[in-house]
Amino acid sequence: MASLALTQTQALLPTLRSSLRTWLAPAFGSAVLGWPGISRTLPSLGSLLELFPSIVLAVPKKKTSHSRKAMRSANKGLKDKQNITNCAGCGGVKLAHHICPNCYSSITRQWKAKLREEGLPGLS
Amino acid sequence: MKHGVAFRKFSRTSSHRNLMLRNLVTSLFEHEQIKTTLPKARDAARLAEKIITLGKKGHNAAQARASSFLLKPSILTKLFSTFAQRYADRPGGYTRIHKFGNRQGDNAPHAILELVDNPRDLKWEMTARAVGRELLKDKVNSDSSEAVVDAGLGRVVNLLRAEKGLEPEEKGLLRPMTRWNLQKVLQFRGPRDVVEMSKKARVYADDLMATPMAHQTMHEEVKAKYPHTPQPRRLAGHKRLAETRPALVIAQGALGPGASPPTKGKKKRVYVLENALTQSF
């Protein structure tokens, strides 16, 4: 029903607009709110006009297909790490300019074992 | 424009930030080695150096300033005795930062901040390991496998003394980077520490030879129980002794460039030694 009313008013709009302007001017300019006929029709027409904003938002015209999406993200993947070297101590792999986690763990384990032998509190 | 904004804010008010950094420096002096994020380590290191300089000056004003900075009074005595003595000859550069990957949990870059020449010096330990590995590699190239397994590295003190005196452009036994690290680590230490280093290197070389044998023994024990157990695989990218290819190529395995390494001359013997220890595992 609402859509039917909308199409009807849409067709009527060009003709209504000029008369609406003449109605609106006295309605807002002076205090003729007591007139029963106008007070019933005016708000409905005003709210209907707000349904047609002068600015139209930009929206995609077509759905992005799987192929297009795949093509777009073809170069978005993770890059391979190139900063991988061998540890000079154990020969394992490690990040360049970082300490070898493997060697670090074995060294700290030795320290902790030594502290435990001496009966001292462990490393914090 | 970033003018006059030299240091980090750490998303904290200045009082919060200053207290955090003082706390970090105090912990560093207490434990001589701390683990924190890389930016915090960099800022704390800068302040720690200044405080150690105060410790070296040692006069009353320096004591007053140091005591107003450090959060534990017990650290003050350590600063004005131990550190002042240890760094008497060193013109700055009392701290060292090791990057340590990214932290579990928030993936923040992690770092180990330590005082140079502290009793648990990580660079000292790592250099000893590198020296041990490289000398063992050289030994294996020159001697027979049986002799190396029997005798290990032998005495290497004189060798290290010679390496300590070499200039950068001269050719020695160690790799240039390892030799540089050795020289830096020994620079402000006494002659007894060369002996200590050689001992550590020798022990580590024995470790290197014993590890594959231990693995093999463990594997055989499991295999005695479950006969279909396959040989354990070598870790991807692991560099065996005398391997010359870089880590990335080793990790690519049979797909990498130069997949079948040339096995002629002395190199072959190294592979034979490792295979003898591990039966091609």
TrEMBL record, chain A:
Family annotation (InterPro entries): Mitoribosomal_protein_bL32, Ribosomal_bL32, Ribosomal_zn-bd
Signal peptide: none
GO biological process: translation
GO molecular function, one term: structural constituent of ribosome
Domain of life from the UniProt record: Eukaryota
GO annotation, cellular component aspect: mitochondrial large ribosomal subunit
Keywords: Mitochondrion, Ribonucleoprotein, Ribosomal protein, Transit peptide
Annotated SUPFAM superfamilies: Zn-binding ribosomal proteins
Keyword Ribosomal protein in annotation: yes
Location of this chain's protein in the cell: Mitochondrion
Family that this chain belongs to: Belongs to the bacterial ribosomal protein bL32 family.
PANTHER family attached to this UniProt entry: 39S RIBOSOMAL PROTEIN L32, MITOCHONDRIAL, LARGE RIBOSOMAL SUBUNIT PROTEIN BL32M
Entry protein name: Large ribosomal subunit protein bL32m
UniProtKB/TrEMBL annotation, chain B:
Swiss-Prot/TrEMBL keywords: Ribonucleoprotein, Ribosomal protein
Family of the protein in this entry: Belongs to the bacterial ribosomal protein bL17 family.
GO biological process: translation
GO molecular function: structural constituent of ribosome
InterPro entries linked to this entry: Ribosomal_bL17, Ribosomal_bL17_CS, Ribosomal_bL17_sf
Matching SUPFAM superfamilies: Prokaryotic ribosomal protein L17
Matching Pfam families: Ribosomal_L17 (PF01196)
Signal peptide: none
A cellular component annotation (GO) from this entry: mitochondrial large ribosomal subunit
Glycosyltransferase in keyword set: no
Stated name of the protein: Ribosomal protein L17
PANTHER family on file: LARGE RIBOSOMAL SUBUNIT PROTEIN BL17M, RIBOSOMAL PROTEIN L17
This protein's record includes keyword Ribosomal protein: yes
Gene3D superfamilies, alphabetized: Ribosomal protein L17
